[in-house]
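Exercise 7.
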Amino acid sequence: MKHSTTPQTRRGHRGGPARRIGRTLALVLPVVLVLSGTLAVTRVNWTGSPRSSVLTATDVTDVHVSSKAVSQAPQDVLRDQLMTELQDKNPGQVLTHLQQAVNGHPSLAEHCTSIARALGRAAVRIYGASRAQSYARPVCDTSFASGVLAAHS
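Solution. The predicted structure, written as tokens, is:
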């Protein structure tokens, strides 16, 4: 008997059940992944507005906000929070929090100037003009400093 050194292959055999399951998964799995990714992206709150019906991570951290704040615009809520914070912390820390809020929610950038000016005016009432001016730095195009100047004049 002579043995062949070439492996024998079965012709006409398409594979067993494992091969069929593998082919099915290879076709179905990418479709499922694309659809689930698309659905996940559509559920993200891209507007920056917490009024959406979708609960975002930032909404969960802001649950302690009063019912009055719910009816306010996000920039008004931020201004009120920072004004309250100014009572307990120095203006430098409050300006840092303003910058962090704008960096975290770019939709607030257009309101940064007015919020910083309001903080500058409030800082003059709390700390006096020269001490308030000592905290000025380039947050929102030096609007804090212009608020201090406006309140001092």
